[in-house]
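Hey, I'm writing a tutorial for new members on how sequence and structure tokens pair up, and I'd like a real worked example in the thread rather than a made-up one. If someone can provide the structure for the chain below, I'll link this post from the tutorial.
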Amino acid sequence: MKKQELVFQKRLERHHDELKWLYMELYHNEDMFAELCEKLHDYYMERAEWLKELDLERESDPTWYKGNDLLGMMLYIDNFAGNLKGVKNKLRYLESCNVNYIHLMPFLDTPKGRSDGGYAVSDFRKVREDLGTMEDLAKLSEACHKKGMNLCMDFVMNHTSEDHEWAKKAKEGDGEYMSRYFFFDNYDIPAEYEKTVPQVFPTTAPGNFTWYEEVGHHVMTTFYPYQWDLNYKNPRVFNEMMYNFLFLANHGMDIIRIDAVPYIWKELGTDCRNLPQVHTIVRLMRMIGEIVCPSVVLLGEVVMEPIKVVPYFGTLEKPECHMLYNVTTMATTWHSVATRDVRLLKKQMDIVNALPKDYTFLNYLRCHDDIGWGLDYATLLTWGMEEVSHKKFLNDFFTGKVEGSISRGELYNDDPIIMDARFCGTTSSMCGMEVALADMDEEQIKNAARMDLMLHAYMFTQSGIPMLYSGDEVGQVNDYSYKEDPDKAVDSRYVHRGAMDWELAKKRTSKKTSQGMIFQGLKQLEQLRKESHVFDADAQVWTVDTYDDSILCIIRHKDGEQMCGIFNFSEWDKTAWIDEEGDYVDMITGEERVMKAVNIPGHDFIWAKRK
């Protein structure tokens, strides 16, 4: 038997019994399981030799993605460089940003005007024509790996576009394809679902079902009417989606982000969120990856507080996702900015820091999506912050309606009935750079850049992998031109999805510009993080009381090395009332420091390392 065949059989044998047991628990279908195993073999044999070598390399170092040298950036291909070939030509720029983990935002084929930012996929095996081809994707992947860079993509599992070939055949009344979705010829059962299933977008897409006159049926559409939920109770759906997953993995993906994980299993009488079968499917997916493409990491999109997302890691013996987003901490960070109060942030960081070091979170300040204020209101209420009024305060603050606020942005899904809305804006605009540049106020520009860097330094100090959003590295502000595009005008999230301004990016080499202040500052932080073992994934991390609600203090410790990070979330000069033993050196300036009763300017930070 050839060596490669032996490798595959060994991996399959390691997982076969559990794979079959879980599959049969869901589907009770021997034939479909046998087909799945045959296809796993086929996709393994089709995998490029250099990818198989990478698989072997990462099998011997399964924690490769936890290194303190890993820094991510998420970007829209067209906004960043036009197309996939353009991204390939910009790899040197990304290297200059210290980025070695590139998250390509959705690039698969979607219908124009009904794409939901790329999350309404009409063909899982075709790149959107204006962005390139699958061959271009494979070439970009090879170019990235030659530079030690990793590629990430979104895999939209919960639904397809109504223009997907399955949906088109379902519209024609083909029962085989109707069974791959949720079709109902009357509203009785949908009405029962609506009693227990929350609405995702109550303003822009109310309800969870859409009536299609052409087929005389209601279709489940959790997100938007043009996104049809897949029925994972059908084994054909599971198998075919796994084949799509492997097809994409074989084009050189290193990290595959599973979109909307909690939604993928539907059960009448429940909220159709986080059901046990979801974990079964993710565990199956993890094993399938370890059999065919073990170098691929699964990143789960689970929008809940850290303690509640933990089940999506699985267990040490039966792991599920490799990484999960630290969504709630992101939202709480901006709450802390608006309130100048870090108490909730400190509480959440203490919870995350107490979790096993095997759990890896992806941390970020901003992303392609809105900020939903899903905070811990039970705790906030004890401090006098009531949910409805506090959400309004946050939205008013970040849209610049609160006196003294220098933030700018727009609301998304503003619901006047329930007095709820989400917020959209770039990191830099939220930090006041948009206002400062408009006023041409040099002092304001310096203050906004300082605040921007403080927040990034705090993010780099957290446990996990830091992720930048394209444009944030040069302090790009909101782009309101989306309002002139009829396909985008109704979606305010495009305010922070503006095209990369390469003319402004050229100014990043001069510290006299806002772009240079942020870019050069970030570069220094990234280099320090990469060089110091205190930023290793297995370092001990804890917070320290500062006796000032606006100041956060984080300690990182490993093998006798210790660093102290202090972050002032207010605009006023403050004193952090800490008392850390030993002599410290400021990691930014090289000056000696005593970490006792530390003075810290408004919206500034200190990184200090013990001698």
